[in-house]
UniProtKB/TrEMBL annotation:
Membrane-traversing stretches: 24-43, 76-93, 105-124, 131-151, 163-183, 204-227, 247-280, 292-315, 321-339
Originating organism: Rhizobium puerariae
Location of the protein in the cell: Cell membrane
Xref: CDD domains: TM_ABC_iron-siderophores_like
Family designation: Belongs to the binding-protein-dependent transport system permease family. FecCD subfamily.
The name this protein goes by in its record: FecCD family ABC transporter permease
Length: 347
């Protein structure tokens, strides 16, 4: 209500204020990522000085410190890429299924990729990087379809609780199948067990380059679907009324997530809980708008995996903890909190 002769005070639109806040969090996450990349290069079982860091970044290998920096550079790159891929994949899966418990690990996608790779190695002597990647993506896709079909059976269709239970059961079954496949093969058992924990140690540019096209495709597909995911969040009927082809949007979004999960699992092994934790934290910061949530989840995933890798190097010196162990220690309590907060009985 305005009074004659008195100008009402101007107010900035709420959307403008919220967008500025979101921009602040996005810029802050970029700065945090840069800081963690620097720490990842400098922190490890061996302390290195700035002179060795600069020389190592330039490619020199004249000292042990420079060699250590040279080894940590691809490890840092792989941790950032893998974390970004899993964080984005988790946000996509939660958006597609409208399931707060969706995660590449909980829904069995990562374990499906893992089983496919293990079968390829044990039964078909698979060795090439391209074969690893294609096999992991195929396994992730088949697992995702299987879990969705099982979770859709019965009254009510694919509810969040049914999908989470189907995914958990599938993960356990696939994990048992992995053990059954590996047991008769003592020659590969050690390497498979180490890979199954999930880690970025031993990364090289030769391991990273083959997976880049698949990750690039997954990132592009997923990030371009933000508006469609916003429409899907309104419900299938309303999204269809707005002109969205619901089935096509879901399928394309799932393809992007599968590419990200499969490619990451092929090079790092199955890393759990990161895709669950990151989107929930980012949603608290920027809300449910996927135009902001997806980029922030991408950056947040990279930050979390880099931080987990750094912590794993420090807490067990002179040995190291793989990032899969660190993310599980963080993610398991978070998963329990999410289940209690969302009142699983009502899902």
């Amino acid at each position: 209500m305005t009074i004659a002769g008195v100008k009402s005070p101007t107010r900035r639109p709420v959307s403008l204020r919220s967008n500025r806040t979101r921009s602040f969090w996005l810029i802050g996450m970029v700065a945090l990522l840069a800081l963690l990349c620097g720490l990842s290069v400098t922190v490890g079982t061996r302390e290195v000085g700035w002179a060795d860091i600069v020389a190592g970044l330039a490619g020199q290998l004249d000292s042990i410190g420079q060699a250590a920096v040279n080894v940590r550079i691809p490890r840092t790159l792989l941790a950032a890429l893998a974390g970004a891929a899993l964080g984005l994949a988790g946000a996509i899966m939660q958006g597609v299924t409208r399931n707060p418990l969706a995660d590449p690990g909980i829904l069995g996608v990562n374990m499906g990729a893992s089983l496919a790779v293990v079968v390829g190695v044990a039964w078909f002597d698979m060795a090439s990087a391209d074969a690893y990647i294609w096999t992991a993506i195929l396994g992730a896709g088949c697992s995702a379809v299987f879990v969705y079909v099982i979770g859709s059976l019965g009254r009510g269709g694919a509810t969040p609780l049914k999908l989470a239970l189907a995914g958990a059961a599938t993960s356990v079954a696939f994990s048992s199948m992995v053990i059954a496949v590996v047991l008769p093969r003592a020659d590969i058992a050690g390497g498979i067990r180490s890979w199954q924990i999930g880690g970025v140690g031993g990364a090289t540019f030769e391991r990273i380059f083959p997976v880049l096209p698949f990750l690039a495709a997954g990132f592009a597909i997923s990030l371009l679907l933000a508006r469609k995911l916003n429409s899907l969040a309104l419900g299938d009927e309303l999204a269809a009324g707005l002109g969205e082809r619901v089935a096509v949007a879901r399928a394309v979004a799932a393809l992007g997530a599968i590419l990200l999960c499969g490619a990451t699992t092929a090079v790092c092994g199955p890393i759990g809980f990161l895709g669950l934790v990151v989107p929930h934290v980012c949603r608290l910061l920027v809300g449910v708008d996927h135009r902001w949530l997806l980029p922030l989840s991408t950056l947040g995933g990279a930050c979390l995996l880099l931080a987990a890798d750094i912590v794993g190097r420090i807490v067990a010196r002179p040995a190291e903890l793989d990032v899969g162990i660190v993310t599980a220690l963080v993610g398991a309590p978070f998963f329990i909190w999410i289940v209690r907060r969302q009142r699983v009985r009502e899902l």
